[in-house]
Amino acid sequence: xxxxxxxxxxxxxxxxxxxxxxxCGSGVYTSDGTKNCKLLSEAERNxxxxxxxxxxxxxxxxxxxxxxxYTYVFQLCGDAAGVPKAGVVQFENQKTESKPTVIGLxxxxxxIGGSDWVMLIYRDGDNYDQHCSKEKRKAxxxxxxxxxxxxxxxxxxxxxxxxxxxxFYLFELDSSAVxxxxxxxxxxxxxxxxxxxxxxxxxxxxGFLYQRLIVGAKGMEQFPNYAFWVEFGNLTADGxxxxxxxxxxxxxxxYRGVASEPLEEEPxxxxxxxxxx
Length: 277
Known about the structure:
Layout: H1 11-26, H2 45-49, E1 58-65, E2 68-75, E3 86-92, E4 101-113, E5 117-124, E6 139-145, E7 155-160, E8 168-175, H3 188-215, H4 226-244
């Protein structure tokens, strides 16, 4: 029998929420988190630990199928709706006095995980009355990655009981708890540049404060190691000019040709006659 999630509410859902509030106020929730679950294989413990943020919380979902209406309550490694040892329970909304049906126990847990999902399986629930060769019920909760929500609304996907064995209830829940950690895409060169800029900022700010507050410098003298950087800048400019210039700054005297004939000596002008006798 396939069932779909329903948006409608029921009186029993209200009763379930009241039970949750009472449990929260009375401290029924344990503080051990995922450690309360007994795994069929301890190798799955690391997968189960990924769900630690979802501990101590009841998740509910209600479905309707014709005249039938059910409310399901799920808790991670804790007593769902206060039912001892039950991880998932089912309430029939038409029978408010009926005993809840245990779908699975957290004392028989399996945890299967991928990069962005975890499948939680609770086994050893109450036996079917007529279906599935009267085997024990089993709950499967598929928890998928959704970075936008801490824990979304639980949904009932289906109840598969039209077979002789291995029947199950399948639930779906979105949570950021199973999302993989975001990898950093910063390269090694970028990290070095960031560190360099940080050190430069510390040098400039610290040096400026020291020069101004301790030394009492004014104007450009507030710049740390001002004399060194001025000299360094001049030396750098001279080195760049020496390496990059293509010709000397001092131009060689222009070439002038030499006359082939010797220049006639001008007669010496004598001025002896101007002297007083």
